[in-house]
Design brief:
The complex is a heterodimer of chains A (516) and B (509). By secondary structure, chain A is of the alpha/beta class. Chain A contains 17 helices and 15 strands. Chain A has helices spanning 14-24, 29-32, 54-66, 89-95, 98-101, 113-130, 142-157, 170-179, 200-206, 228-237, 322-325, 338-375, 400-407, 442-449, 451-462, 476-497, 508-515; strands at residues 75-76, 134-135, 161-165, 186-190, 211-218, 241-246, 264-268, 284-288, 301-305, 311-315, 381-382, 391-395, 412-413, 416-417, 465-469. Chain B has a seven-stranded mixed beta sheet with strand order 3-9-8-7-6-4-5, with helices on both faces. Chain B has a three-stranded antiparallel beta sheet with strand order 12-14-13, covered by helices on one side. Classes of the chains: A alpha/beta (516), B alpha/beta (509).
Chain lengths: 516, 509
């Protein structure tokens, strides 16, 4: 018995191949490639493993997947841009439909009304969330969307610098810096004050008539809530645009950027109905004021009518784009994350006008609860002043990585140790603030003015700082169990410092995690 | 909102049965789908959680719809769309091949889709192994040393590759400005060149559709050459016969060669870009390795490079320890940095892995052989109807010109729209720019003989109709949910978001 040795998605039988070759006047398949110079013909066979049947393939992939211990299967408090929200069944049902999944970019609008209308609805939902007038069809991620925002601001103002708060996610800033190597305004950072909110006094000092844009994130990467309105005012007074980087779920509860007069809004949209997928694909979103519409990068869908007056949707303002303008385009981007945007709009429709704010409020309340409970533990201290949304940092009496490793075998992912971003903060205040309003006092400013000194202090200061996020999937029961587990580890750590060795440096927890 | 608010714009609708409404227009106060988990933590005044001054004062006007209505809405919308799952999609340069369903199943394994990018590496060994292995395969297919899987799309790969080029020149102590691009190149090439801070210089094509070597020599002689970007086979579907000479010329001038891998589907296991002399290669996984296009994305645009460029690759790279474990290496001091947050479109890369793993070396080679065979077969069926600008053996796609139909007043665009009526997705039109009334056809290897015959038959019917009833062809499509759409007025008075009754007159302008 002989079947096919491996998967083969080409339909032809050998007879078909023979007859097709005859029809094209070729004696052999080899002859089809006769125009390739012999010197660049690959004479060898690719050194890849031999093909598989579907069952064998799934067995291999299942083995690989089983070697992972996904955050979704643990009690996870990980965040920093990617969040473990519940993805409803209808999202998977819709986005796996072949009509959406296997379509190309809608270049033929008459046969692409499904994806075009879904993008129009996505754009509308993003405008509603952000309070902005125009949203593009989505982008790759928050980092690239931020880079595009900077380029847009540079093009609009013809100015040379963009000032980015250190409260903006370090990876978004890294992407901006990389992509700005030869193009667009030069990114500079504005330091944080005590309380981990942007130091607005220093920001003001850095402004000038060569600043294209000011960028702040709300909530920022420490979970602190920024005074976005004040920052926007400073930017506008200097003739710069104001760019807000936002967590879309926060917009169920927090003021929309349109209200505080943001000119450009970008962010990571994974949390809107997309799985975490190790960080991608999610989607970047980007929305602007009406006056910036013609500078918007990426795809944009508009409503129109057909020859008989029927409603329809098309890609519009395409003269901004590379396939028309080539080197004069606003960006090289010629795609979006359409399927992820579809997931987002299905998700937002599912939550709806009442459900979306309810979800945001629930996350905020549970986050506030967890924060309170953790701050009751001996040695755990507040790091940011003021309220938070669903993500916050605390200072621990031990390195944050140690706590994370110790809790994995108990089934918890405790959060993101901020030390992973060491080096991203030139001037985070080294001391834990007392509660109360963020301070922009003289001492902090002095630290900030000396980035080298501040940087060293900040790097050391971040070792014991942990960022925790709370989604609606985290129940009170889980939170209470987590706090109890943290308390046990801290108690053990206290004893260890007293002489015993509950947690050794080699990290038995980490080894257990490897086996998990 | 009450019925009838949007009535002027949607008097007829989905398949003529009901008004074409948006999800927002299906909203009715008090309806909804999701249930919010009960509040199980102490109920404090909301002001104590987040003060009123920071909160929004009115909710986003998201739809209020029942779950069944959401499912029906998006299911009915999908019927207005067309994918490879529906039928032939010979859209040139886009490689609309079948997207195997098993790859979808692979990507939805919780061990991949449930991973958080910041979970400990010890808990992500399977994903890291997959990424590490995939990188090795891409290097083998390209014939180069190392890769980054970070770029999210082909255009993003181009920008990444050019930034790598920049870093390499800086390391050599040079700062050349000019990147040579053939006039047949994808529009992304010159746009990416600008975004990398370089100046694009176009080189014309010769009588055989290849790079005009005399012109290239002149451009190179003018100096300041940072590199050259080339698609091979070109967007004309022709293999660049002078590739080795081109590589020598550009390398001789200190430049680097960038391979736009959009057309790799023609040469898997048949000719490797590294062996052609390219230093930097991008693959579009959504073309060559069958990850679904998703209506415009997500894709992935991994970059493969030669030894000289390895130190500059984006961070982190995936590395393997002697003990067989995998880790992310962020400590690469000469790296250009990051081009995307986290590690790339991992969910897409899982599908690409599954595709390459399923086919193996024989299967990949068969992909290219049959892609080329199918393109030649369709070209043979259309040769007598259209102008064939370059009489050569085509690779995985070909370009013909619709100029013979001009005498009837029918243009390439009209052919495309009429093909829709005949159930075939049209080819790419008006590209590449150097061919008048271009129709660029790429059937792909996954079309059966019957399907290829249908494609040919549809073209032939349209050509016949163009002669017999040109007005009808120019008014096409006739059988779709909408007739030809007014793109000019859409651009003149853009309506780019839902208009609510209460803010009529406040639309973006």
């Amino acid at each position: 018995m002989t079947g096919r040795p491996a998967l083969d998605y080409t339909p032809h039988s050998e007879t078909d191949v023979r007859e097709l070759l005859e029809a094209v006047g070729a004696g052999s398949v080899e002859e089809l490639f006769a125009e390739i110079p012999a010197a660049v013909r690959f004479a060898d066979e690719l050194h890849l493993p031999a093909g598989l049947s579907e069952a064998e393939l799934m067995a291999e992939l299942t083995r690989l997947a089983a070697a992972d211990c996904p955050a979704s299967g643990l009690v996870s408090f990980l965040g920093a841009g990617v969040y473990d929200h519940y993805v409803p069944a209808i999202v998977d049902a819709i986005v796996s439909r072949g009509e959406y999944l296997t379509a190309y970019t809608p270049y033929q609008p008459e046969r692409s009304q499904g994806v075009l209308q879904s993008i129009f609805e996505y754009q509308s939902a993003i405008c509603e969330l952000t309070g902005m007038e125009v949203s593009n069809a989505s982008m790759y991620d928050a980092g690239t969307a931020l880079a595009e925002a900077s380029f847009l601001a540079g093009g609009q103002t013809r100015r040379a610098r963009v000032i980015v708060s250190e409260g903006v996610h370090p990876e978004y800033r890294q992407v901006l810096a990389t992509e700005s190597a030869g193009y667009g305004p030069r990114p500079e950072t504005a330091p944080l004050a005590a309380g981990a909110a942007t130091d607005l006094a220093l920001l003001q000092g850095a402004l000038g008539d060569d600043v294209a844009a000011v960028v702040l994130q709300q909530p920022n990467v420490f979970g602190a809530l920024e005074d976005m309105a004040a920052a926007a005012r400073l930017a506008h007074e200097a003739g710069a645009l104001f760019v807000a980087v936002v967590d879309p779920v926060s917009l169920g509860l927090l003021a929309p950027p349109g209200e505080y007069r943001a000119d450009i809004v970008v962010g990571e949209g994974q949390a809107l109905g997309n799985p975490m997928s190790y960080g991608g694909p999610g989607l970047g979103f980007m929305a602007v004021t009406a006056r910036l519409m013609r500078r918007l990068p990426g795809r944009l869908v508009g409503e129109t009518v057909d020859a008989e007056g029927r409603r329809g949707f098309v890609l519009t303002l395409q003269t901004r784009e590379q396939h028309i303008r080539r080197e004069k385009a606003t960006s090289n981007i010629c795609s979006n994350h359409a399927l992820n945007a579809l997931a987002a709009v299905v998700y937002l429709s599912w939550l709806g006008k009442e459900g979306f704010p309810a979800l945001a409020e629930l996350c905020a309340r549970r986050a506030a609860y967890l924060r309170e409970r953790l701050l009751e533990l001996p040695g755990v201290e507040a790091y940011t002043a003021g309220p938070v949304f669903r993500e916050f940092v605390v200072r621990l009496p031990l390195p944050a990585t140690r706590l994370v490793d110790a809790l994995v075998p108990r089934g918890f992912l405790a959060g993101v140790p901020m030390s992973r971003f060491a080096g991203a903060f030139g001037a985070v205040a080294a001391e834990t603030p007392s509660t109360g309003a963020p301070s922009t006092g003289a001492a902090t400013s002095a630290t900030a003015a000396d980035p080298a000194a501040g940087g060293n202090a900040a790097a050391a200061a971040l070792d014991d700082v942990l960022l925790l996020a709370v989604t609606e999937k985290r129940t009170r029961e889980q939170i209470d169990a987590f706090v109890a587990a943290v308390a046990e580890v801290l108690a053990g750590h206290g004893e260890a410092r007293g002489g015993s060795s509950v947690l050794s440096e080699s990290g038995p927890a980490a080894e257990e995690a490897d086996r998990a | 909102m009450p019925d009838g608010e949007m009535s002027t714009a949607c008097r007829e609708g989905i398949l003529g049965r009901e008004p074409r409404l948006t999800i927002f227009e299906r909203s009715r106060p008090g309806r909804g789908a999701a249930a919010t988990p009960a509040l199980d933590v102490p109920d404090k005044p909301l002001d104590e959680v987040v003060p009123a001054a920071l909160r929004r004062t009115r909710p986003a006007r998201l739809p209020e719809v029942a779950e069944v209505d959401i499912v029906r809405h998006f299911t009915n919308l999908s019927a207005l769309n067309y994918g490879v799952d529906n039928g032939a999609y010979p859209l040139g340069s886009c490689t609309m091949k079948y997207n195997p369903r098993v790859n979808e199943r692979a990507a939805t394994l919780e061990g991949f889709r449930g991973l958080h990018p910041y979970q400990p590496e010890s808990l992500a060994q399977g994903a890291l192994e997959l990424l590490y292995t995939l990188e090795g395969w891409l290097c083998e297919i390209a014939g180069l040393a190392r890769a980054t899987l970070q770029p999210a799309a082909g255009a993003h790969g181009e920008l990444t590759g050019l930034l790598l080029m920049r870093a390499a020149h800086e390391a050599r102590g040079r700062a050349p400005r000019r990147i040579v691009i053939p006039d047949t190149a994808h529009g992304t090439n010159p746009a990416s060149v600008i975004m990398a801070g370089y100046d694009p210089v176009a080189v014309s094509s010769d009588a055989r559709g290849g790079v005009d070597m005399d012109r290239l020599r002149e451009i190179v002689a003018e100096g300041d050459i940072a590199g050259l970007m080339l698609t091979n086979p070109s967007t004309l579907g022709l293999f660049e016969e002078h590739i080795l000479e081109i590589a020598e010329l550009v390398h001789g001038a200190g430049g680097l060669l960038y391979y736009d891998g959009a057309n790799s589907n023609a040469v898997l296991g048949i000719s490797r870009p590294g062996d052609m002399g390219f230093d930097i290669v991008h693959f579009n996984t959504h073309k060559t390795f069958s990850t679904p296009h998703g209506g415009g994305g997500p894709g992935a645009g991994p970059i493969v490079v030669g030894e000289e460029l390895v130190p500059f690759l984006p961070v982190p790279t995936v590395e393997k320890r002697d003990d067989g474990t995998y880790y992310l290496d962020h400590d690469r001091p000469r790296s250009i940095g990051k081009v995307r947050t986290f590690y790339g479109n991992v969910g897409v890369l899982v599908r690409a892995y599954a595709y390459i793993r399923a086919l193996g070396p024989d299967g990949l080679r068969r992909v290219s052989e049959r892609a080329v065979l199918n393109a030649n077969y369709v070209l043979a069926g259309l040769r007598d109807l259209f102008d064939v600008p370059f009489e050569r053996r085509c690779m995985h796609e070909f370009v013909v010109s619709a100029t013979p139909l001009r005498e009837h007043g029918v243009r390439a665009m009209d052919v495309a729209k009429r093909l829709l009526d005949h159930g075939v997705h049209p080819p790419t039109t008006y590209f590449p720019l150097i061919v008048d009334e271009a129709l660029m056809v790429e059937p792909t290897e996954t079309e059966s003989r019957e399907s290829l015959d249908r494609i040919v038959e549809a073209f032939r019917t349209v050509a016949r109709e163009a002669a017999e009833d040109p007005e009808m062809v120019c008014a096409a499509p006739h059988t779709l949910p909408v007739r030809r759409l007014d793109e000019a007025s859409a651009a003149r008075k853009p309506v780019v978001r839902q208009r609510f009754p209460e803010d009529e007159g406040a639309a973006a302008s």
